[in-house]
Amino acid sequence: MSQTALIVEDEIFVALDLERILTDAGYNVAGIAADSRSAIECAPGCAFAFVDVNLRDGATGPEIARRIAEDYGVKIVFVTANPSQIGNGIEALGYIRKPFSERAILAAAALATGAGQAAPEDVIPLGIAM
């Protein structure tokens, strides 16, 4: 399976931290997208994406996630401080609450690429609030 990730995050320091964690672990990062348009452009060829809910163009993260999952088969992990805004009907591996740990990001990446399993405290399934 592809080791290529997409980061959908408008806070540049958060996005760069995610990129560093992933590249240090050997993953490829196709791009950092801060809005819907750039996320859709970067999605083809990505295996998984870390998606925030609130982006430069509003609370568009859930719709971006739905679209890139359906159109390109990208596996989704939300990285957000606002998991209640994710909504229903989105096929995602789960979410990681901000502020995140490096361990949680790497566990989610391994889960998304089929290289490992995440402990429940790392990637929280949608519908379970912690």
Automatic annotation (TrEMBL):
Response regulatory domain residues: 4-113
GO biological process annotation, one example: phosphorelay signal transduction system
Modified sites of kind 4-aspartylphosphate: D52
Signal peptide as annotated in the record: none
Pfam entry (one): Response_reg
InterPro entries: CheY-like_superfamily, Sig_transdc_resp-reg_receiver
Transcription found in the keyword field: no
Keywords: Phosphoprotein
Keyword set includes Phosphoprotein: yes
Name by which UniProt lists this protein: CheY-like chemotaxis protein
Organism per entry: Sphingomonas yabuuchiae
